[in-house]
Amino acid sequence: MTGPFPKDAVNRNAAMTTRAFLAALLAAPAALLAQPSGDLLVRADRLVISPGNELTERAAILVRDGKVAFLGPEIPAPAAAAAREMRFEGTIAPGFVDPHAHLGIAKDLAEAIDAVTPDLSAADALDPFDDALGRAARYGVCTLALAPRSANAFAGRAAMVRAGVTGTLLMEDAYLKLALVDESLDQNRFPTSRMGAVDLMRLSFARARDAANDDRASQAIRRTLDGGRLAFHTRRHAGITSALDLCDELGVQPLLIGADEAARSTARLVRTRGSVVLAPLNLDSPLRHLRLPATLEAAGVPFSFMTEAPPRDATAATGRAEATNSTAHPEALRVSAALAVRHGASRTTALAAITRVPAEQCGAADRCGSLLQGRDASFVVVGGDPLDLGAPLLAVFVAGKRVDLEDRGDDR
Amino acid sequence: MLRPFSFDPRCALVAVLAPVVGLAAQEAPEADPPAERALSAIRVAVAHPIAGPPIRDAVLLIEEGRLTAVGPADEVTIPADATVLEFPDSHAYPGLVDALSVAFGDPTVLNDKQADAGTPVFEGLDPTDRASRALIDYGITTAYVSNRADSTWRGLGAVLHPRHDGFAQAEGEETIAAGVQVNMAGATDKHPLERDKARRAIGELFATLEAYRKAQERHPRKVEKYEAEFSKYLDYHRDQKSKKGPKGDADKGEAKTGDKIKDADTDPPAAKPPQEEGGENGGGEGNGKAKTKAAPAKKRQTGRDDGAAKADGAKKKDADKAPKRPNFPKPPTPDPAKEALMRVVDGELPLRVEVQRAEEIQAALELAREHSVPRLVLEGTAAAADVEAIAAAGVPFVLTGFLEPQQPPRSAAFERAGRLAGQLEGAGVTVAIGSGSVRGSRHLPLLAAYAAGKGLSADAAVRAITLSDAEVLGVDDQVGSLQAGKRADVLIVSGPLLASDTRILAVLSAGDIAFRATAAGTEDR
User: Fold this and answer.
1) Residue-level pLDDT at B478
2) What phi-psi label fits residue A331: left (phi over 0), alpha (psi between -120 and 50 degrees) or beta?
3) Residue A341 to residue B403, Cβ atoms within 8 A
């Protein structure tokens, strides 16, 4: 009734309690009187449970409490009968996942003065009513990793957020983001160069490994090294090499964000079981970027697409983080995947790049990115194959709730 | 005087250069292999003529760069001497037409803010641009290029056929200029009064066309009158000369006059020796003309100063009769901008107006109505449009920029713009798609697919990158569909054009194989 409220930014005051009480009062007799279970049964011609694993017969999904309860032939007949049913002519596919997004204004997520802020959490800056969350959902991006901007070396921890007119926090600590890009360097503080940044990172990791150091930064890094994920934002080959070196030293699985020049490091990425988050492809992308997904697929390196694009020009790249608001439209995920297919990637890999792989990269594979039992019932219904742009987006569900695809002017 | 042994550096240069030149001459044919101009046939699984329903197991016959037959294999017989190209399991489409491109455009030329309506963009194109040369590999066989400056007038756009070695211009010299570009969207961010001013200026230029045309039409009549007067003048003097008789002096004089005086039968600037004219015209008739012409002059003279004229005597009287040498009428100053707009008003060229807002569309439609522009074409990224009004005016729409790489500042407008294609189609408006950028041009099928995903029907989407574009550009008698008689521009792909995993197998431009995928299945670019 009232919907899942975001963890923070909502004042849990007395009025809220009263409303919840009233809702319960109204809902209780309704549930007793009417048979409908509150489940939702969505049928279509085809169901992609996860890329490469699909049903073409009895393609259906039973949603209960915002989660995937049953799939296809496993749906119990009584539950199906009791559920509210929707039927579409098209394909059900997992909702798209954006593994690296920035919302709001630069001041929300860019900590530029201190170079080492691994203890910061993007979740603290989540504005659940950000227009961009509503827009993301309208284009099938059901889950996104809200990441700190690349304003300093240890940027902070990303948080997984469910998109929608009202966003909700799915989980904290998706990954600890480190930045080795030009925007993370600042002339007014150390480090001012990439070598300085690498040195600072090495130093900070060494400090954190010493249990005697009990500052918040060291604690946060220690937590990450102890089963968490490290993500390096880097575009050029030199930065990629530095990131891979650091990961080798720490013994962690590399996750590279950006990495336009990853084609040169495929062998090393395969050896270390690393993966890559690619900048969105667009019509103006150079051929080497358009072909990178196919190259990575051929080498066996998992990759995903994000909405954050590199700054448009050189002046923006050298400027401060405020100047680099270059978030692409949420539709860029699907367009990127389609472009990857056009340039040699397989449909399965390209769909994985916007569903399963980004979920895995964020450590949220058990929550989103596929439609296995128990996952969030976040999915899209497309009138054809999701990777053909000619197939219209028919419906989007985020955690079992249907998204209004019409622009209501709420994102002005 | 010849010296027995001398060294001429020029000879040495020739001796050194000769083998180089010879080498170059030998290499030339190798670099440009003889095109497969002879009769050839292509067999594909499905041909999409666009002008008609798809044909299964189709054969395309090509001769001299043109399609001579398109039909099912059991109806079209392949001549025995034809080279047959088999593409099993493939689809053939007409070569793609980009209705709005900047291919081969030098950035400085395509941003010429000083352009007027008659500035030809064709003059400033750079045939060496590598990215543009590669467009043929993506099946773009025809592209319309125009100035994209942020000014109101953008000049004449050009239709080109991209090739690996530059571009060929569209058939017939007249089609090079394929439209006069007006930019109404450029004023979008300006103050309403400034917008209004810019629009009024457009209207005012159209309003001057009538006067310009009249001046143009009046001039030949003036020249006619001049010629008549001049022949009288000439005849009069010839007459005088024949009275004096052939003298050495007179001969000299005649030769002199002949140099100066122009033949009345030809255009004034082209001077002709007067001898033959003297033979033709010298006679009583010419004399009579001269007299009638002289009469009003005398009258005027006598009217003004009667007494003096009489007193002067016979000698003076003769001089009065002499007709004045007329001045050649000054031709009206040629104005390329107005010349171009006259071609627009005459329906020879379309007027292409870039619009962005509903209000601009309204203004463009009004402009066309008011100045009776027969062929208006709207282009641009419009978020909101009165589709009914566009349909009622029978105006086609070239959609562009609706799949921008980055999120534009007005996100909601961007989202609505995507749906415009379907709305226009629903209202019965011809929809064409233009890439608007060289790199974007490579993804023309993706743009069409995107429009299809937003509500354009799949058939209209394919048409929007082939035949509809050709119609909008006025070259639909040459390109845009697989029909006998048209240029043999053929795109052969592995599946339906709009599907993401469809690969380009071959591209034919005017019957020549411009691109062919390598055996590995990857495009060789």
Assistant:
1) 92
2) alpha
3) no
